[in-house]
Amino acid sequence: MSEKNQINIGRRQLLKSTAATTALTGLGGTLSFTPIVESIAAEIPAPLLRTGTGEWIATTCQGCTSWCAKQIYVMDGRAIKVRANPNSGVHGMSSCPRQHLSLQQVYDPDRLRTPMMRTNPKKGRDQDPKFVPISWDKALDMLADKIIALREADESHKYALLRGRYSHINDLLYKKMTHLIGSPNNISHSAVCAEAHKMGPYYLDGNWGYNQYDIKNAKFILSFGADPIASNRQVSYYSQTWGDALDHTKVVVVDPRFSASAAKAHKWIPIEPGQDSVLALAIAHVALVEGLWHKPFVGDFVDGNNQFKAGQNVKDESFKETHTYGLVAWWNEALKDYTPEWASKITGIDPKTIIAIAKDMGAAAPAVQVWTARGAVMQVRGTYTSLACHALNGLFGAIDSKGGLFPGNKIPLLEEYPDEHAYMDDIANKGVKNAKIDHSGRLEFPALKKGKSGGGVVTANVANSIFNADPYDIKVILAYFNNFNFSNPEGQRWDAALSKVDFMAHITTNISEFSWFADVLLPASHHMFEKWGVLDSIGNGVHQVSIQQPSIKRLWDTRIDESEIPYMLAKKMAEKGFDAPWRYINEQIVDPETGKPADNEVDFAKVMVRYITSPLWHEDASKYGDKLASWDDFVEKGVWNSSDYKLESRWGKFKTETQKFEFYSKTLEKALQGHADKHKVSIDEVMEVCEYQARGQLAFVPHYEQPYRVGDEAQFPLLLVDQKSRLNKEGRSANSPWVYEFKDVDPGDVANQDVAKFNPIDGKALGLKDGDDIRISSPVGSLTCKAKLWEGVRPGTIAKCFGQGHWAYGRYASTEFGVTARGGSNNDLIADKYDRLSGASAFYGHIRVRVEKV
Ligand SMILES: Nc1nc2c(c(=O)[nH]1)N[C@H]1C(S)=C(S)[C@@H](COP(=O)(O)OP(=O)(O)OC[C@H]3O[C@@H](n4cnc5c(=O)[nH]c(N)nc54)[C@H](O)[C@@H]3O)O[C@H]1N2
Ligand SMILES: Nc1nc2c(c(=O)[nH]1)N[C@H]1C(S)=C(S)[C@@H](COP(=O)(O)OP(=O)(O)OC[C@H]3O[C@@H](n4cnc5c(=O)[nH]c(N)nc54)[C@H](O)[C@@H]3O)O[C@H]1N2
Ligand code: SF4
Ligand SMILES: [Mo]
């Protein structure tokens, strides 16, 4: 609109009644507005202009794993605005931009509004399911019949519960119900999320989890792939603090792609995909040769003379460690040969750069932070990259130090509902003894979560085992909050597997790619606006617990995934004669204050949250943090904050085998030995079967493993670099128009397009220009999108955001629902490979591709 027009309209509207001005006084007293505002106001019906008549209701965003505490402004039962919850001790009033997308999610016109049933018995990508609406009663009837039939046929283990995103009340639907039915197959999405990330922290310092970074006091940040102002964990907090941190912190971002955080760093190192450990290990080598390690944490030579010399062994007795274990063994076994020159040969990074980084880190120690992201570690040999990167945190004394990093403080949140074993009948007891369908714990899948063979999950392999009926077929699936054929590598495998499953129910807000293969669709209440749930988050030294509660009038005939649906299903199964889950629910999950079971499913949803959070408000939690007066106090505030993390609190008592920070991981040695013994093989054989290169003791220390690649380099000369979009809320914002409209918030990307970004050097060689339609192919699949030339990608690689390429989900997500995808999905290119020690899927490093114009 031109300025002239604005003024004209303003004049015209000014002459209109004063009604608009009166209505606008709700904004606070008699304000005078510009003519243009008043003119707009005059066009709006009076009820819509009311302000200050709504209320802020606390909830939690689950757009990403930051799980920020939020408030929703609700008027007349409608959500109007979302903001951060000022009661949060983690992020305060800060937020990432994605919070606003949640309004488009909940009010998505394509939401699933009622249960539906498939009428086309044939299943496949090309088969329209021909869903028709049915009642909740009918839907649950069908599901209950299928489960009971399995139990009667002595096949209860052929039931599987697949879990995508979840909240802290998931235990009932995920584990307890699955066990009560008689199946070992509760399958989490964790292994397509970030399990390899946890290997370094767990096997070096005993923390199976993530860390928070004391960024306010940091002096040096070295990030391997992490882009904390766009993705990673606690985006809101780091977005708030990153700018200030740059004033006192030197930041080096190692990423093949120029990320948002790299754009704000002092240095960007565009590493070749899969070569991060080379840099990490060479920095460690320099730190030892130059005597830069943090002595108060690590210790020193007995005689005070540094004996670390490249290529030379050191005698174990000559070094006395303080809070660490195995430094000399690490040096002798691996580190002594990882010179900057060696690293330079592999990575092309100037040895001087490596030495300079090591010196800077030494000078900044212990206020040093080494971050790792999925990109560096969710790779075929990613466990060892995770170990190599995290070992630097030990070497520079960053662990539990001011300006360093530490886990979340201990909090008294309950993790589970009461034990279910007393309610398990013979069928259930027999059923759960079957091997898990994901093959975790098999020789080729150690999945060593918390040191236990098979302790973790191998999510993506479930598609293979269902398809091959290995060790048995899966006949009934209940899945929620997941979209595995879109989110897993080589998702097409899931299409094939799901086509073989007799009966599947999907609990979802939208008819997604996964729903396409379902027999029954169960419409989910939206997690942020319509659900009772509990989440936690760490950052700023605080571990917060925040609530999700219904804030708006439920839009459609939906139910809450983790509470109402299991309640209704249990009741239905009880009516049909199988009452164990129903008895368990009513006898065990009772209200913490009244001791009474819930009256109905709506009541039950709240009881479940009250139960899990009761130590925070029903008991005195002041030993751990805030003291809440009551449940109402908690619901109103929406957040409980822990006290500040106690620095150095784990020193001397790490939860490792030696209670030290283990450069030589006794903890990993024990876990690998346990796995090898179980299969009556040597650890070397385990390493071989699992596609790692280390033999002997090398397997227990951070060391270099060559990146594993899929495909012939001559045929597939480029490497794909997958990334998250700043606007993706995992898979859940797929149908938000703003995701596409504002796509250019991702460095190098283009609004309303799906682009693959090429370095101009490669663009020239390939004859590509901006906007060309291209096909990218890997050995396992292909996709089409547009080309974009951009200096922010390492030559030889293509960077492309994950998240487009939907062919279902809704009108904005796909070009034609059920038929034509909008853009291309990276997972069509990513071969199904694993970091087998963790069970994690590989999404990075191994993806060789080629490009052609179409
Ligand atoms: N915007 C946004 N944020 C999110 C989410 C989201 O959907 N959207 N999801 C949340 C979830 S579920 C998780 S698990 C976390 C994960 O957060 P992170 O663990 O930080 O992982 P990603 O962002 O997936 O990591 C991919 C990064 O690795 C880089 N990369 C790719 N290959 C390599 C490599 O070989 N070496 C190095 N050094 N870098 C490489 C990519 O360029 C990209 O920056 O993010 C959470 N935050
Ligand atoms: N190439 C590539 N692949 C990736 C990633 C990547 O960075 N790159 N990231 C990976 C990571 S870190 C993760 S965690 C996984 C996530 O992958 P999944 O666990 O499969 O989760 P989403 O893809 O987020 O799918 C969530 C689905 O739940 C449904 N849904 C949406 N909102 C709600 C709700 O409120 N309630 C319920 N009950 N259902 C809802 C919709 O059907 C939606 O498709 O993806 C992984 N896949
Ligand atoms: S999308 Fe993630 S960072 Fe953004 S508000 Fe939600 S939980 Fe927080
Ligand atoms: Mo994730």
Automatic annotation (TrEMBL):
Pfam families named among the record's database cross-references: Molybdopterin (PF00384), Molydop_binding (PF01568)
Location of the 4Fe-4S Mo/W bis-MGD-type domain: 54-110
Cofactor(s) needed for function: Mo-bis(molybdopterin guanine dinucleotide)
Keyword Metal-binding: yes
Alphabetized UniProt keyword annotations: 4Fe-4S, Iron, Iron-sulfur, Metal-binding, Molybdenum, Oxidoreductase, Signal
InterPro entries xrefs: Arr_molybdopterin_subunit, Asp_de-COase-like_dom_sf, MopB_CT_Tetrathionate, MoPterin_dinucl-bd_dom, Mopterin_OxRdtase, Mopterin_OxRdtase_4Fe-4S_dom, Prok_Mopterin_Oxidored, TAT_signal
Family listed: Belongs to the prokaryotic molybdopterin-containing oxidoreductase family.
Protein name (database record): Dehydrogenase
Organism: Shewanella litoralis
Classification of source organism: Bacteria, Pseudomonadati, Pseudomonadota, Gammaproteobacteria, Alteromonadales
